[in-house]
Protein backbone atom coordinates (compact mmCIF):
# COMPACT_ATOMS: atom_id res chain seq x y z
CA UNK A 1 0.00 0.00 0.00
CA UNK A 2 2.64 2.54 1.08
CA UNK A 3 4.54 2.29 -2.19
CA UNK A 4 1.36 3.46 -3.93
CA UNK A 5 1.38 6.68 -1.93
CA UNK A 6 3.53 9.79 -2.23
CA UNK A 7 5.59 9.81 0.98
CA UNK A 8 8.28 12.36 1.86
CA UNK A 9 10.61 11.33 4.67
CA UNK A 10 13.57 13.69 4.42
CA UNK A 11 13.36 17.11 6.15
CA UNK A 12 14.41 20.43 4.64
CA UNK A 13 14.59 22.22 7.99
CA UNK A 14 16.04 20.86 11.20
CA UNK A 15 14.33 20.56 14.55
CA UNK A 16 15.92 23.26 16.79
CA UNK A 17 18.56 21.99 19.23
CA UNK A 18 16.70 23.16 22.33
CA UNK A 19 12.97 23.50 23.05
CA UNK A 20 11.26 26.91 22.88
CA UNK A 21 10.45 28.27 26.36
CA UNK A 22 6.89 29.61 26.43
CA UNK A 23 5.87 31.89 29.33
CA UNK A 24 2.71 33.61 30.48
CA UNK A 25 2.21 37.29 29.59
CA UNK A 26 0.54 39.04 32.49
CA UNK A 27 0.20 42.80 32.91
CA UNK A 28 2.91 43.41 30.33
CA UNK A 29 5.48 40.96 31.77
CA UNK A 30 6.62 37.54 30.57
CA UNK A 31 6.48 35.28 33.64
CA UNK A 32 6.78 31.67 34.71
CA UNK A 33 4.19 30.02 36.95
CA UNK A 34 4.50 30.88 40.62
CA UNK A 35 5.00 27.18 41.42
CA UNK A 36 7.45 26.75 38.53
CA UNK A 37 5.37 24.04 36.82
CA UNK A 38 5.91 23.44 33.08
CA UNK A 39 4.61 21.07 30.45
CA UNK A 40 6.55 19.54 27.56
CA UNK A 41 5.24 19.32 24.01
CA UNK A 42 6.65 16.62 21.74
CA UNK A 43 6.53 17.05 17.98
CA UNK A 44 3.93 14.56 16.67
CA UNK A 45 6.20 13.91 13.69
CA UNK A 46 9.65 13.90 15.24
CA UNK A 47 9.00 12.54 18.74
CA UNK A 48 11.29 15.05 20.50
CA UNK A 49 10.38 17.80 22.96
CA UNK A 50 10.06 21.03 20.95
CA UNK A 51 8.63 23.37 23.58
CA UNK A 52 8.34 23.74 27.32
CA UNK A 53 5.47 25.92 28.46
CA UNK A 54 4.70 27.39 31.85
CA UNK A 55 1.69 25.55 33.24
CA UNK A 56 -0.69 28.09 34.70
CA UNK A 57 -3.04 27.65 37.64
CA UNK A 58 -5.60 29.68 39.56
CA UNK A 59 -3.01 32.29 40.68
CA UNK A 60 -1.89 33.15 37.12
CA UNK A 61 -5.44 33.19 35.77
CA UNK A 62 -6.67 35.46 38.59
CA UNK A 63 -3.74 37.80 38.01
CA UNK A 64 -4.38 37.95 34.25
CA UNK A 65 -8.09 38.65 34.68
CA UNK A 66 -7.38 41.36 37.27
CA UNK A 67 -4.86 43.00 34.92
CA UNK A 68 -7.33 42.95 32.02
CA UNK A 69 -10.07 44.38 34.26
CA UNK A 70 -7.85 47.25 35.46
CA UNK A 71 -6.70 47.98 31.91
CA UNK A 72 -10.28 48.10 30.67
CA UNK A 73 -11.68 50.19 33.50
CA UNK A 74 -8.98 52.87 33.48
CA UNK A 75 -9.50 53.43 29.74
CA UNK A 76 -5.84 53.07 28.70
CA UNK A 77 -7.08 51.19 25.62
CA UNK A 78 -10.87 51.31 25.61
CA UNK A 79 -10.89 55.12 25.44
CA UNK A 80 -8.14 55.49 22.84
CA UNK A 81 -9.21 56.74 19.44
CA UNK A 82 -9.77 54.18 16.71
CA UNK A 83 -6.81 55.72 14.91
CA UNK A 84 -4.46 55.04 17.82
CA UNK A 85 -5.74 51.48 18.27
CA UNK A 86 -5.35 50.86 14.53
CA UNK A 87 -1.76 52.11 14.63
CA UNK A 88 -0.82 49.41 17.16
CA UNK A 89 -2.72 46.65 15.33
CA UNK A 90 -1.05 47.53 12.03
CA UNK A 91 2.34 47.41 13.74
CA UNK A 92 1.52 43.93 15.10
CA UNK A 93 0.67 42.87 11.53
CA UNK A 94 4.09 44.07 10.31
CA UNK A 95 5.83 42.21 13.12
CA UNK A 96 3.89 39.01 12.39
CA UNK A 97 5.13 39.15 8.80
CA UNK A 98 8.68 39.81 9.97
CA UNK A 99 8.48 36.77 12.30
CA UNK A 100 6.59 34.45 9.95
CA UNK A 101 9.35 31.86 9.71
CA UNK A 102 9.92 31.62 13.47
CA UNK A 103 6.19 31.31 14.13
CA UNK A 104 5.65 28.80 11.34
CA UNK A 105 8.44 26.51 12.53
CA UNK A 106 7.01 26.26 16.04
CA UNK A 107 3.47 25.84 14.69
CA UNK A 108 4.68 22.92 12.57
CA UNK A 109 6.70 21.32 15.34
CA UNK A 110 3.86 21.44 17.88
CA UNK A 111 0.95 20.55 15.60
CA UNK A 112 2.46 18.27 12.95
CA UNK A 113 1.12 20.39 10.06
CA UNK A 114 3.30 20.97 6.98
CA UNK A 115 5.62 23.98 7.09
CA UNK A 116 4.13 25.42 3.87
CA UNK A 117 0.69 25.52 5.50
CA UNK A 118 2.07 26.89 8.78
CA UNK A 119 3.74 29.70 6.80
CA UNK A 120 0.45 30.49 5.11
CA UNK A 121 -1.40 30.41 8.41
CA UNK A 122 1.04 32.57 10.41
CA UNK A 123 2.07 35.03 7.70
CA UNK A 124 -1.48 35.18 6.32
CA UNK A 125 -2.82 36.09 9.76
CA UNK A 126 -1.26 39.55 9.37
CA UNK A 127 -4.12 40.39 6.99
CA UNK A 128 -6.65 39.67 9.74
CA UNK A 129 -4.85 42.17 12.00
CA UNK A 130 -4.85 44.80 9.24
CA UNK A 131 -8.51 44.28 8.47
CA UNK A 132 -9.37 44.56 12.18
CA UNK A 133 -7.34 47.79 12.29
CA UNK A 134 -9.51 49.19 9.50
CA UNK A 135 -12.63 48.36 11.52
CA UNK A 136 -11.24 50.17 14.57
CA UNK A 137 -11.39 53.37 12.52
CA UNK A 138 -14.63 52.87 10.64
CA UNK A 139 -16.87 51.56 13.42
CA UNK A 140 -19.93 53.71 14.00
CA UNK A 141 -23.48 53.61 15.30
CA UNK A 142 -26.77 55.11 14.12
CA UNK A 143 -28.67 58.33 14.55
CA UNK A 144 -32.44 58.80 14.46
CA UNK A 145 -33.52 62.21 13.27
CA UNK A 146 -37.21 61.38 12.80
CA UNK A 147 -38.31 61.06 16.43
CA UNK A 148 -39.82 64.54 16.61
CA UNK A 149 -38.54 68.14 16.43
CA UNK A 150 -37.23 68.05 20.01
CA UNK A 151 -35.69 64.56 20.14
CA UNK A 152 -32.49 63.16 18.66
CA UNK A 153 -31.76 59.46 19.06
CA UNK A 154 -28.15 58.26 18.93
CA UNK A 155 -27.08 54.63 19.08
CA UNK A 156 -23.43 54.14 19.95
CA UNK A 157 -21.28 51.03 20.07
CA UNK A 158 -19.01 50.43 23.03
CA UNK A 159 -16.48 47.71 23.82
CA UNK A 160 -18.07 44.88 25.77
CA UNK A 161 -15.26 44.78 28.37
CA UNK A 162 -12.94 41.95 29.41
CA UNK A 163 -12.99 39.06 26.92
CA UNK A 164 -11.71 35.54 27.59
CA UNK A 165 -10.36 33.98 24.38
CA UNK A 166 -9.89 30.19 24.38
CA UNK A 167 -8.42 28.50 21.29
CA UNK A 168 -7.84 24.95 19.99
CA UNK A 169 -4.69 23.20 18.71
CA UNK A 170 -5.51 22.78 15.04
CA UNK A 171 -4.95 26.37 13.82
CA UNK A 172 -3.50 28.05 16.91
CA UNK A 173 -2.20 31.25 15.35
CA UNK A 174 -4.93 31.71 12.75
CA UNK A 175 -7.81 31.26 15.18
CA UNK A 176 -6.17 33.56 17.71
CA UNK A 177 -5.97 36.14 14.92
CA UNK A 178 -9.62 35.65 14.04
CA UNK A 179 -10.49 36.81 17.56
CA UNK A 180 -7.84 38.92 19.31
CA UNK A 181 -7.34 41.80 16.83
CA UNK A 182 -11.12 42.19 16.48
CA UNK A 183 -11.60 42.31 20.26
CA UNK A 184 -8.73 44.81 20.54
CA UNK A 185 -10.04 46.89 17.65
CA UNK A 186 -13.35 47.16 19.51
CA UNK A 187 -11.50 48.48 22.59
CA UNK A 188 -11.82 45.35 24.73
CA UNK A 189 -9.08 43.94 26.93
CA UNK A 190 -8.36 40.22 26.84
CA UNK A 191 -7.20 37.10 28.59
CA UNK A 192 -6.06 34.44 26.13
CA UNK A 193 -5.55 30.71 26.65
CA UNK A 194 -4.17 28.59 23.81
CA UNK A 195 -4.45 24.82 23.74
CA UNK A 196 -2.00 23.09 26.07
CA UNK A 197 -0.76 21.16 23.01
CA UNK A 198 0.18 24.23 20.94
CA UNK A 199 1.02 27.12 23.29
CA UNK A 200 4.15 28.56 21.68
CA UNK A 201 2.98 30.77 18.82
CA UNK A 202 0.49 32.45 21.15
CA UNK A 203 3.31 32.99 23.65
CA UNK A 204 5.51 34.39 20.85
CA UNK A 205 2.78 36.86 19.94
CA UNK A 206 3.17 38.38 23.42
CA UNK A 207 6.63 39.61 22.43
CA UNK A 208 5.22 41.18 19.29
CA UNK A 209 2.35 42.88 21.13
CA UNK A 210 4.81 44.48 23.55
CA UNK A 211 7.11 45.56 20.70
CA UNK A 212 4.15 47.11 18.86
CA UNK A 213 3.34 49.24 21.91
CA UNK A 214 0.17 47.59 23.20
CA UNK A 215 -0.23 48.97 26.72
CA UNK A 216 0.46 46.55 29.58
CA UNK A 217 -2.57 44.57 30.78
CA UNK A 218 -4.56 44.99 27.56
CA UNK A 219 -3.78 41.47 26.36
CA UNK A 220 -2.80 38.81 28.89
CA UNK A 221 -1.89 35.24 28.03
CA UNK A 222 -2.14 32.30 30.41
CA UNK A 223 -0.81 28.92 29.31
CA UNK A 224 -2.31 25.77 30.72
CA UNK A 225 -5.14 23.26 30.72
CA UNK A 226 -8.88 23.72 30.27
CA UNK A 227 -9.21 23.10 33.97
CA UNK A 228 -8.33 25.21 35.93
CA UNK A 229 -7.30 27.99 33.49
CA UNK A 230 -10.08 27.81 30.89
CA UNK A 231 -12.84 27.09 33.39
CA UNK A 232 -11.86 30.07 35.57
CA UNK A 233 -11.73 32.29 32.49
CA UNK A 234 -15.31 31.18 31.84
CA UNK A 235 -16.75 31.50 35.34
CA UNK A 236 -14.94 34.56 36.71
CA UNK A 237 -17.27 37.47 37.60
CA UNK A 238 -14.83 40.08 36.21
CA UNK A 239 -15.02 38.59 32.70
CA UNK A 240 -17.74 40.01 30.43
CA UNK A 241 -17.54 37.69 27.41
CA UNK A 242 -16.08 34.35 26.38
CA UNK A 243 -15.00 33.75 22.79
CA UNK A 244 -14.30 30.05 22.33
CA UNK A 245 -13.21 27.86 19.45
CA UNK A 246 -13.03 24.12 20.03
CA UNK A 247 -15.13 21.00 20.34
CA UNK A 248 -18.90 21.09 20.67
CA UNK A 249 -18.68 19.13 23.95
CA UNK A 250 -16.45 21.75 25.62
CA UNK A 251 -18.50 24.54 24.02
CA UNK A 252 -21.62 23.24 25.79
CA UNK A 253 -19.75 23.10 29.10
CA UNK A 254 -18.55 26.68 28.62
CA UNK A 255 -22.08 27.89 27.84
CA UNK A 256 -23.40 26.26 31.02
CA UNK A 257 -20.64 27.77 33.18
CA UNK A 258 -20.79 31.23 31.61
CA UNK A 259 -24.59 31.15 31.92
CA UNK A 260 -24.26 31.30 35.72
CA UNK A 261 -23.18 34.94 35.41
CA UNK A 262 -24.93 35.57 32.07
CA UNK A 263 -21.73 36.37 30.21
CA UNK A 264 -21.97 36.72 26.48
CA UNK A 265 -20.62 33.57 24.78
CA UNK A 266 -19.47 33.26 21.16
CA UNK A 267 -18.75 29.71 20.02
CA UNK A 268 -17.00 28.29 16.95
CA UNK A 269 -17.43 24.53 17.19
CA UNK A 270 -17.26 21.35 15.13
CA UNK A 271 -18.57 20.51 11.69
CA UNK A 272 -19.56 17.59 9.47
CA UNK A 273 -19.39 19.53 6.26
CA UNK A 274 -20.84 18.12 3.03
CA UNK A 275 -19.83 18.84 -0.54
CA UNK A 276 -22.62 17.91 -2.94
CA UNK A 277 -21.58 17.01 -6.48
CA UNK A 278 -24.13 17.18 -9.30
CA UNK A 279 -23.51 15.34 -12.60
CA UNK A 280 -23.16 18.57 -14.61
CA UNK A 281 -20.28 19.85 -12.43
CA UNK A 282 -16.71 20.43 -13.57
CA UNK A 283 -15.78 17.06 -12.12
CA UNK A 284 -12.03 17.46 -12.45
CA UNK A 285 -12.01 20.65 -10.38
CA UNK A 286 -14.54 19.20 -7.93
CA UNK A 287 -12.39 16.10 -7.36
CA UNK A 288 -9.35 18.26 -6.66
CA UNK A 289 -11.35 20.42 -4.22
CA UNK A 290 -12.69 17.33 -2.46
CA UNK A 291 -9.14 16.00 -2.13
CA UNK A 292 -7.99 19.34 -0.72
CA UNK A 293 -11.04 19.53 1.56
CA UNK A 294 -10.33 16.21 3.23
CA UNK A 295 -6.52 16.20 3.54
CA UNK A 296 -5.84 19.86 4.35
CA UNK A 297 -4.45 20.03 7.92
CA UNK A 298 -4.58 16.19 7.93
CA UNK A 299 -8.37 16.47 8.04
CA UNK A 300 -8.02 18.00 11.51
CA UNK A 301 -10.02 21.01 10.44
CA UNK A 302 -13.44 22.31 11.50
CA UNK A 303 -14.07 22.96 7.80
CA UNK A 304 -12.96 19.52 6.67
CA UNK A 305 -15.36 18.30 3.98
CA UNK A 306 -15.43 14.89 5.57
CA UNK A 307 -18.53 13.71 3.71
CA UNK A 308 -19.31 14.08 0.06
CA UNK A 309 -22.73 13.50 -1.40
CA UNK A 310 -22.36 12.49 -5.05
CA UNK A 311 -25.04 11.90 -7.67
CA UNK A 312 -25.43 8.13 -8.14
CA UNK A 313 -24.84 8.33 -11.93
CA UNK A 314 -21.30 9.65 -11.48
CA UNK A 315 -20.39 8.30 -8.02
CA UNK A 316 -18.10 5.43 -9.06
CA UNK A 317 -16.14 7.46 -11.60
CA UNK A 318 -15.89 10.40 -9.23
CA UNK A 319 -14.59 8.25 -6.37
CA UNK A 320 -12.00 6.69 -8.70
CA UNK A 321 -10.81 10.18 -9.58
CA UNK A 322 -10.52 11.20 -5.89
CA UNK A 323 -8.66 7.97 -5.06
CA UNK A 324 -6.20 8.58 -7.90
CA UNK A 325 -5.59 12.14 -6.67
CA UNK A 326 -5.24 10.94 -3.07
CA UNK A 327 -2.32 8.74 -4.08
CA UNK A 328 -0.49 11.81 -5.40
CA UNK A 329 -0.90 13.94 -2.25
CA UNK A 330 2.48 14.24 -0.53
CA UNK A 331 2.27 12.79 2.99
CA UNK A 332 5.21 12.85 5.39
CA UNK A 333 7.78 15.05 7.06
CA UNK A 334 6.14 18.40 7.83
CA UNK A 335 9.53 20.12 7.69
CA UNK A 336 9.82 19.54 3.93
CA UNK A 337 8.30 22.33 1.80
CA UNK A 338 6.65 19.86 -0.61
CA UNK A 339 4.78 17.95 2.11
CA UNK A 340 1.02 18.54 1.94
CA UNK A 341 -0.15 16.29 4.80
CA UNK A 342 1.70 15.87 8.09
CA UNK A 343 1.21 13.97 11.34
CA UNK A 344 -1.80 13.27 13.55
CA UNK A 345 -1.74 15.43 16.66
CA UNK A 346 -1.55 12.62 19.28
CA UNK A 347 -1.37 8.79 19.27
CA UNK A 348 -4.78 8.71 21.02
CA UNK A 349 -6.33 10.74 18.25
CA UNK A 350 -4.87 8.41 15.64
CA UNK A 351 -6.58 5.50 17.43
CA UNK A 352 -9.86 7.41 17.49
CA UNK A 353 -9.70 7.97 13.72
CA UNK A 354 -8.96 4.30 13.18
CA UNK A 355 -11.94 3.34 15.39
CA UNK A 356 -14.34 5.25 13.10
CA UNK A 357 -12.93 3.50 10.03
CA UNK A 358 -13.22 0.01 11.62
CA UNK A 359 -16.78 0.65 12.81
CA UNK A 360 -17.85 1.84 9.35
CA UNK A 361 -16.37 -1.27 7.71
CA UNK A 362 -18.12 -3.51 10.22
CA UNK A 363 -21.39 -1.71 9.42
CA UNK A 364 -20.99 -2.48 5.70
CA UNK A 365 -19.09 0.47 4.24
CA UNK A 366 -16.43 -0.26 1.61
CA UNK A 367 -12.84 0.88 1.86
CA UNK A 368 -11.54 2.26 -1.47
CA UNK A 369 -8.20 3.51 -0.16
CA UNK A 370 -6.17 3.52 3.06
CA UNK A 371 -7.87 2.66 6.32
CA UNK A 372 -4.82 2.23 8.56
CA UNK A 373 -1.95 4.04 10.22
CA UNK A 374 1.13 5.01 8.26
CA UNK A 375 4.81 4.82 9.15
CA UNK A 376 7.12 7.39 7.59
CA UNK A 377 10.74 6.23 7.46
CA UNK A 378 12.72 7.86 10.27
CA UNK A 379 9.67 9.55 11.75
CA UNK A 380 7.64 6.86 13.44
CA UNK A 381 3.99 6.03 12.94
CA UNK A 382 1.90 8.97 14.13
CA UNK A 383 0.47 9.31 10.64
CA UNK A 384 -2.70 8.00 8.98
CA UNK A 385 -3.12 6.84 5.41
CA UNK A 386 -5.28 8.87 3.02
CA UNK A 387 -8.58 7.04 3.34
CA UNK A 388 -11.69 6.96 1.16
CA UNK A 389 -14.78 4.96 2.19
CA UNK A 390 -17.90 4.51 0.06
CA UNK A 391 -21.34 2.96 0.66
CA UNK A 392 -21.54 5.02 3.82
CA UNK A 393 -25.10 5.40 5.10
CA UNK A 394 -26.38 8.43 7.03
CA UNK A 395 -26.87 6.45 10.25
CA UNK A 396 -23.17 5.48 10.57
CA UNK A 397 -21.05 7.37 13.11
CA UNK A 398 -18.51 8.13 10.35
CA UNK A 399 -21.25 10.05 8.49
CA UNK A 400 -22.48 11.96 11.55
CA UNK A 401 -19.52 12.69 13.84
CA UNK A 402 -16.31 14.66 13.35
CA UNK A 403 -13.62 12.09 12.51
CA UNK A 404 -10.97 14.85 12.40
CA UNK A 405 -8.60 12.87 10.21
CA UNK A 406 -7.78 12.20 6.53
CA UNK A 407 -10.88 10.06 6.06
CA UNK A 408 -13.46 10.78 3.36
CA UNK A 409 -16.98 9.29 3.55
CA UNK A 410 -18.95 8.97 0.31
CA UNK A 411 -22.77 9.02 0.25
CA UNK A 412 -24.93 9.12 -2.88
CA UNK A 413 -28.18 10.80 -3.96
CA UNK A 414 -30.70 10.56 -6.77
CA UNK A 415 -32.72 13.80 -6.68
CA UNK A 416 -32.06 17.41 -5.61
CA UNK A 417 -34.40 17.05 -2.63
CA UNK A 418 -32.58 13.94 -1.51
CA UNK A 419 -29.24 15.76 -1.72
CA UNK A 420 -30.54 18.61 0.44
CA UNK A 421 -32.07 16.18 2.96
CA UNK A 422 -28.75 14.32 3.28
CA UNK A 423 -26.74 17.54 3.56
CA UNK A 424 -29.04 18.84 6.31
CA UNK A 425 -29.24 15.51 8.16
CA UNK A 426 -26.59 16.58 10.69
CA UNK A 427 -26.43 18.06 14.16
CA UNK A 428 -23.75 20.40 12.81
CA UNK A 429 -24.10 23.28 10.34
CA UNK A 430 -20.72 24.92 9.83
CA UNK A 431 -20.11 24.89 6.08
CA UNK A 432 -21.32 23.20 2.90
CA UNK A 433 -20.44 23.12 -0.77
CA UNK A 434 -22.21 22.61 -4.07
CA UNK A 435 -20.75 21.68 -7.46
CA UNK A 436 -22.83 22.31 -10.58
CA UNK A 437 -22.58 24.37 -13.75
CA UNK A 438 -26.26 25.29 -13.35
CA UNK A 439 -26.70 28.56 -11.49
CA UNK A 440 -30.27 27.62 -10.47
CA UNK A 441 -29.05 24.42 -8.82
CA UNK A 442 -26.33 26.33 -6.97
CA UNK A 443 -28.63 29.12 -5.80
CA UNK A 444 -31.35 26.78 -4.61
CA UNK A 445 -28.75 24.73 -2.73
CA UNK A 446 -27.31 27.88 -1.11
CA UNK A 447 -30.75 28.92 0.10
CA UNK A 448 -31.87 25.56 1.44
CA UNK A 449 -28.72 24.16 3.03
CA UNK A 450 -28.30 24.68 6.77
CA UNK A 451 -24.78 26.10 7.15
CA UNK A 452 -23.01 29.29 8.17
CA UNK A 453 -20.92 29.31 4.97
CA UNK A 454 -21.76 27.86 1.55
CA UNK A 455 -19.17 27.50 -1.18
CA UNK A 456 -20.27 27.09 -4.78
CA UNK A 457 -17.78 25.55 -7.19
CA UNK A 458 -14.95 26.07 -4.73
CA UNK A 459 -13.99 25.01 -1.23
CA UNK A 460 -12.61 26.85 1.78
CA UNK A 461 -11.83 30.18 0.15
CA UNK A 462 -11.85 32.66 3.03
CA UNK A 463 -11.49 36.41 3.42
CA UNK A 464 -11.33 38.64 6.51
CA UNK A 465 -14.34 40.51 5.10
CA UNK A 466 -16.51 37.35 4.89
CA UNK A 467 -17.96 36.54 8.28
CA UNK A 468 -17.64 32.98 9.55
CA UNK A 469 -19.59 30.82 11.98
CA UNK A 470 -21.97 27.95 12.35
CA UNK A 471 -25.64 27.15 12.78
CA UNK A 472 -27.11 24.28 14.82
CA UNK A 473 -24.44 22.70 17.04
CA UNK A 474 -21.57 24.26 15.09
CA UNK A 475 -21.75 27.35 17.23
CA UNK A 476 -23.31 30.67 17.99
CA UNK A 477 -22.25 34.18 17.09
CA UNK A 478 -19.95 35.09 14.21
CA UNK A 479 -16.27 35.66 13.75
CA UNK A 480 -14.30 38.01 11.39
CA UNK A 481 -16.00 40.40 8.98
CA UNK A 482 -17.97 43.31 10.41
CA UNK A 483 -20.41 40.87 12.08
CA UNK A 484 -17.55 39.21 13.93
CA UNK A 485 -16.28 42.61 15.06
CA UNK A 486 -19.75 43.56 16.33
CA UNK A 487 -19.69 40.54 18.68
CA UNK A 488 -17.20 42.46 20.84
CA UNK A 489 -19.40 45.57 21.05
CA UNK A 490 -22.36 46.53 23.19
CA UNK A 491 -24.99 48.87 21.81
CA UNK A 492 -26.17 51.84 23.84
CA UNK A 493 -29.18 54.01 22.99
CA UNK A 494 -28.96 57.69 23.86
CA UNK A 495 -32.16 59.72 23.75
CA UNK A 496 -31.48 63.47 23.72
CA UNK A 497 -34.19 66.03 24.30
CA UNK A 498 -33.46 69.34 22.67
CA UNK A 499 -34.78 72.35 24.59
CA UNK A 500 -37.12 72.41 27.60
CA UNK A 501 -40.02 70.64 25.89
CA UNK A 502 -40.63 67.76 28.32
CA UNK A 503 -44.22 67.74 29.60
CA UNK A 504 -44.22 67.30 33.44
CA UNK A 505 -45.58 63.93 34.67
CA UNK A 506 -46.68 65.33 38.07
CA UNK A 507 -49.64 67.65 37.73
CA UNK A 508 -48.91 70.97 39.33
CA UNK A 509 -52.41 71.69 40.73
P1 LIG B 1 -11.19 21.22 22.75
O1 LIG B 1 -12.62 21.60 22.91
O2 LIG B 1 -10.74 19.96 23.34
O3 LIG B 1 -10.23 22.36 23.36
C1 LIG B 1 -10.31 23.71 22.93
C2 LIG B 1 -9.77 24.63 24.02
O4 LIG B 1 -10.65 24.55 25.14
C3 LIG B 1 -8.38 24.25 24.53
O5 LIG B 1 -7.65 25.42 24.76
C4 LIG B 1 -8.69 23.54 25.84
O6 LIG B 1 -7.64 23.59 26.78
C5 LIG B 1 -9.89 24.34 26.32
N1 LIG B 1 -10.75 23.69 27.31
C6 LIG B 1 -10.92 22.36 27.54
N2 LIG B 1 -11.81 22.16 28.54
C7 LIG B 1 -12.22 23.39 28.94
C8 LIG B 1 -13.13 23.86 29.94
N3 LIG B 1 -13.82 23.02 30.70
N4 LIG B 1 -13.32 25.19 30.07
C9 LIG B 1 -12.65 26.07 29.29
N5 LIG B 1 -11.76 25.68 28.35
C10 LIG B 1 -11.54 24.37 28.16
O7 LIG B 1 -10.91 21.28 21.17
P2 LIG B 1 -9.59 20.87 20.40
O8 LIG B 1 -9.45 19.39 20.41
O9 LIG B 1 -8.45 21.71 20.87
O10 LIG B 1 -9.94 21.38 18.91
C11 LIG B 1 -10.64 20.63 17.99
C12 LIG B 1 -12.09 21.07 17.92
O11 LIG B 1 -12.16 22.44 17.61
C13 LIG B 1 -12.86 20.36 16.81
O12 LIG B 1 -14.13 20.00 17.28
C14 LIG B 1 -12.97 21.42 15.72
O13 LIG B 1 -14.04 21.26 14.84
C15 LIG B 1 -13.10 22.65 16.54
N6 LIG B 1 -12.74 23.82 15.76
C16 LIG B 1 -13.73 24.66 15.32
C17 LIG B 1 -13.42 25.77 14.52
C18 LIG B 1 -14.48 26.72 14.04
O14 LIG B 1 -14.12 27.81 13.63
N7 LIG B 1 -15.75 26.36 14.05
C19 LIG B 1 -12.09 25.99 14.17
C20 LIG B 1 -11.11 25.11 14.62
C21 LIG B 1 -11.44 24.04 15.42
TrEMBL record:
PROSITE patterns xrefs: ALDEHYDE_DEHYDR_GLU
Name of the protein in question: Aldehyde dehydrogenase family protein
InterPro entries linked: Ald_DH/histidinol_DH, Ald_DH_C, Ald_DH_CS_GLU, Ald_DH_N, Aldehyde_DH_dom
Ranges where the Aldehyde dehydrogenase domain occurs: 33-493
Keywords, in A-Z order: Oxidoreductase
Keyword Oxidoreductase: yes
SUPFAM superfamilies to which the protein is assigned, alphabetical: ALDH-like
Residues spanning the membrane: none
Keyword Oxidoreductase: yes
Active site: 268
Family that this chain belongs to: Belongs to the aldehyde dehydrogenase family.
Pfam short name (any one): Aldedh
Amino acid sequence: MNDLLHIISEPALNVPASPYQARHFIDGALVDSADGRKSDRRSPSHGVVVSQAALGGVAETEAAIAAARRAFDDGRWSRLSGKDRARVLNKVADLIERNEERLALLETLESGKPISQARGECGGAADLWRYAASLARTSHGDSHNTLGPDILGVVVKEPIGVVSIITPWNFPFWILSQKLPFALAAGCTCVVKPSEMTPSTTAMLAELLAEAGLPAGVCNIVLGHGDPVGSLMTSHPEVDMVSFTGSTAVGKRITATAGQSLKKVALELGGKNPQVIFPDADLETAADAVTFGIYFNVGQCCNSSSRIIVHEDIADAFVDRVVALSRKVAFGNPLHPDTQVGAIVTPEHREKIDGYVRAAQEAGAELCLGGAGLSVPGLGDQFYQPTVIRRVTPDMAIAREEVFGPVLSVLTFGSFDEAIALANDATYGLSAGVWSENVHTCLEFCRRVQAGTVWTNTWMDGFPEMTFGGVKQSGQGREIGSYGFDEFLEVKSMVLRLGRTRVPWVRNT
